[in-house]
Amino acid sequence: MRAGLQLLLCLFILLPVCAQKTDSRITISGYVREAGSLEALIGVSVYVPATTMGTTTNTYGFYSLTLPAQDSVQLAYSFVGYETEIHTHTRRLSQTLNVLLTPGRVLAEVDVKADVAGEKVSESAQMSVIDIPIRQIKKIPAFLGEKDVLKVLQLMPGVQKGSEGQTGIYVRGGGPDQNLIILDDAVVYNASHLFGFFSVFNGDAIKSVELIKGGFPARFGGRLSSVIEMNLKDGNREKLHGEAGIGLISSRLTLEGPLTKNKKSSFLISGRRTYLDILAAPLINAETRGQTKIGYYFYDLNAKANYELSSTDKLYLSGYFGRDKFHARDKTAETNTGLSWGNATATLRWNHLFNQKLFSNASLIFSNYKFEIASTELGTTDNQLYSLQYNSGIRDFSLKYDVDYYPLPAHSVRIGIQSTYHRFTPSAVVLQNAAISQYSSNVNTIDVLESGIYAEDTWRPSSRWHINGGLRISHFQQKSVSYTRPEPRLSGAYTLKPNLSIKASYALMNQYVHLLSNTGIGLPTDLWVPTTDRVKPQQSQQIAIGLAKDYVENGLALTVEAYYKTMHNIINYKEGASFLLINDPTAANSVRWEDNITAGKGWSYGAEFLLQKKVGRFSGWIGYTLSWTQWQFADLNNGKPYYPRYDRRHDISLVGIYELNKRTTMSATWVYGTGNALTVPVARYDAYRPGTSFFYGNSRDGDGLIKTILQNSRTVDDYGTQKNSFRAESYHRFDVSVQFHKQKAHHERTWEVSVYNLYNRRNPYFYRLEAVDQSAGSTSGIGLFRYSVFPIVPSVSYNVKF
């Protein structure tokens, strides 16, 4: 680790010196922003038409392109959803060129070719990457009208969805803890509202979203399966702008605008709150005659401010705050129960431009996730008889420094360092019970340090080759436990002919934090725990190969990929264990959470197909996944491999969006997936526990007979010997949506009508054994019953932009 730091410091010293060198080349650099708001645009293609020379803007809209000096050169600036700009450079001198791109609402088909000329998937060195324009996400049908970034990602190949309505993400055989979810550089540990039915990300505040499933660039680390990188909008620098929406279960409001009159600063604030507690209260009171009060709500708030200190220095401050809260009170039983969880993040970033070729960013990051349960039972005189409190969480402080260096037309270099101080609270229980006096038990917090340094280069050695190679060195320290591990990364594309390339990638990843889950669906009760002296880091290796084809005339992009991934030291609960047993208040001694888990391995392989169209009046995609995933633990399933819950053989998604005219947008999605692998009862029987035993006879020497009275019978379900040997019925669903737009003088309003599960498919949510009523007045036999959650669900929402 020390040698790596020394190497990185040398690079920091030498890069500014190297960047000052001049030769027969010129450098054109600057920022690309949106006309009308001055919002920085991420991933804009900047290239010389009819050549292989080009680059893309970074997270802050900056680009740098070094070219051979010549009398005249044309540069094209292309981005999905915006009109392509062409600029001619006529001087043989380096120049700063800032560009504004004009958004286009509905693109004519004749404009598609020009719009996507710089967005060719066949020319990118990176593979297994998916980006979806936010404007497209807002047009896709959504459950109860809530536009959800994570649910849209579930429609992409290689991404398995969780249970009905859940936002859980399972990428190429990995679990929900193996996804690195980043919002403005801050890690979000629990991304779900309403027990997983909605995500915490408000689409009105998000500027960009990108999913990486394999071939990870060296700048990312700490997870095995995917990176989901999201960035908040910076805010409109030119004028005050707002957006509001009212739906069936929640409302939201977004405001953005300049902080000063010189257009050098802006702010964004976006909030959302559900009113489920208000809507449900009359129904619950009527049903229970006011004896039971139950409420639930969630809220989230995004805020961001930025200021341009000078042409070379910029400051950004952003944050996210969100919470779910459930509470119930039974007046008859005198019980109070509460459940809450939430995230808080904050990021302070400073951009500095050393010169036209060297860009840097320093970040100070805070992230906190906390989960709490509280239950209290009172006596008839309001004396407290019983009290239980449980909480767990993880808190991070991080420092991060990255440098982007553009030395030559064929090279784009990134180097950086990050260090994170984690504080874990696996569980804390406080119990008071009059029957056993008072008991208090607290698990000590666990402090760890996780760091990483990296260097990567996107290199174009010839017109046919495009390569991204890098190395990340990760380090973990927890008391006397220390790990330092190299993580090589390599991906590349070879152009077979224009608009067609073959790609391959390899990545080794290490993960030093783990999620303990009983259900596998990412509920807030799951526990985040670190690597310790008894729990090793998780590690994965993934290789992938594929083809990429651009159909420029039609605005289509086709990717076909095959992958194989191995995972080691993944963890799971032992049979019968759960987070509630980790610190049992009635036990004589505290039980360490490590005693309740088992470590194992897994592997996943498959093929993915994606045909995508991002522009034009008709857009959308067709995705298909064929995959196999298996896990193996010494203490589960008798040590034999088994299919985890979300192993799915086939997964299909069809998404279509059609701009009928400027006032009407229609969209539809259809999804199909092989059923989940479940463990369900195979039989049911009555069991008896031994009751009171006594001796009888006339001998005092113990020669009497023992008779046992059998009592306390109970029903027992037999789950057989094989884990997840039952395959649920297949899942499929059809959603539709129509948006009606009306442009007014100072605002635009949109009514949206959508239907979730249009043909009322009763998709399985769980299975249970129950008695079968075979004839009137008699019950005979046991059957396996399927339960569903959502039938056909219509919704309507109103949105206004001003």
Short description:
This protein is mainly beta and 802 residues long. The chain has five helices and 48 strands. Helix content is 5%, strand content 56%.
Structure description:
The protein folds into three domains: 113 residues, Sandwich (Immunoglobulin-like), CATH 2.60.40; 550 residues, Beta Barrel (Maltoporin, Chain A), CATH 2.40.170.20; 36 residues, no CATH class. The chain has a 22-stranded antiparallel barrel. The chain has a five-stranded mixed beta sheet with strand order 9-16-17-12-13, with no helix packed on it. The protein is mainly β. It has five helices and 48 strands.
* CATH-assigned fold name of the largest domain: Maltoporin, Chain A
Radius of gyration in whole Å, from Cα? 29 Å
The largest sheet is:
22 strands, antiparallel, barrel
Strand fraction: over 45%
User: How many discrete domains?
Assistant: 3
Query: What CATH architecture label of the largest domain applies?
Result: Beta Barrel
Count of separate DSSP helical elements: 5
Distance between the termini: 52 Å
Structural class: mainly beta
Q: What is the CATH C level class of the largest domain, in words?
A: Mainly Beta
Percent helix: under 10%
The count of DSSP E runs of length 2 or more, i.e. the number of strands, is 48
Rounded mean pLDDT score: 83
CATH H-level homologous superfamily name of the largest domain: TonB-dependent receptor, beta-barrel domain
**Unreliable runs, pLDDT <50, ≥5 residues?**
16-22, 106-117, 585-589, 692-701, 706-711
**Outline, from the CA principal axes?**
globular
